[in-house]
Amino acid sequence: MFADREEAGRKLGARLLRFKDQKPCILALPRGGVPVGLEVAKMLGAPLDLIIVRKLGAPWQRELAIGAIVDGDKPQLVLNRDIIAQLGITPEEIESAKKQQIAEIERRRAAYLAGRPRVAIEGRTAIIVDDGIATGATIRAAILATRAAHPMKIVLAVPVAPTDTIAALNREADEIVCLETHDDFAALSLYYMDFRQLEDEEMRALLARAPHAPPSTAFSQD
């Protein structure tokens, strides 16, 4: 049990100090991953950036994920091809959903970061941070997209997650640091005393306090 996301971030940061000399950059999933990632970034003296993942929903059932789009100079598309084939979803429908979510990603990045340049990932230890994991679908998309930016290493860092999800993600990340795993994982909110939702204004304030790289090291995906 964690008091709040900040406490979880400090505990996670203590476990990640061994990466301090490996050119780390912190990639936080908004919204809950930002206060966790900020504490980690401060402890490691590493730049903090966002990695925004948006689900692509089926045309007639938006809650049914057919894939995800992850932000970047060249947004990375991760598709669930089995579901797409089963449902007979067309390339045109995928492209339409992709454009909608890219627009939302751009809106969120502008709202949260106010034009701050992306952090370079190539050749660095990319540490992907969230406040916890449930199924792992969003994190998996984030890892695949980060891999395309050619980091030296990908470390997944979360305070709490289901045991089986962490086992599955071991095949995706180079290393995983997870403070607590549970076989009988319940709702993520049950592992925090304070799990309130963050508003946009709070997000902007947190990110304004975060270490960040100079403009010459802007993020790029080749």
Describe this structure in words.
There is one protein chain. Helix content is 36%, strand content 23%. The protein has 222 residues and is α/β, with parallel strands linked by helices. It has two domains: 152 residues, Rossmann fold; 60 residues. The strands form two sheets. The protein has a five-stranded parallel beta sheet, sandwiched between helices. A three-stranded antiparallel beta sheet has the order 3-4-5. β4 and β5 form a beta hairpin. α1 packs parallel to α2. The relative contact order is 0.21. It comes from Parvibaculum sedimenti. It holds the Pfam family Pribosyltran. This is Phosphoribosyltransferase. Keywords: Glycosyltransferase, Transferase.
Short overview:
This protein has 222 residues and is an alpha/beta fold. It is 36% helix and 23% strand.
Structural class: alpha/beta
Overall pLDDT score: 88
Q: What would you call the shape?
A: globular
**Main pleated-sheet profile:** 5 strands, parallel
Protein name: Phosphoribosyltransferase
Pfam family, one: Pribosyltran
Organism: Parvibaculum sedimenti
Keywords: Glycosyltransferase, Transferase
Q: How do the strands and helices of this protein lay out in sequence?
A:
Elements: H1 5-15, E1 24-28, H2 33-44, E2 48-50, E3 53-58, E4 61-70, E5 76-79, H3 81-87, H4 91-113, E6 125-129, H5 137-147, E7 153-162, H6 163-169, E8 175-182, H7 200-208
Parallel strand pairs: 1-2, 1-6, 6-7, 7-8
Antiparallel strand pairs: 3-4, 4-5
Helix pairs in contact: 1-2
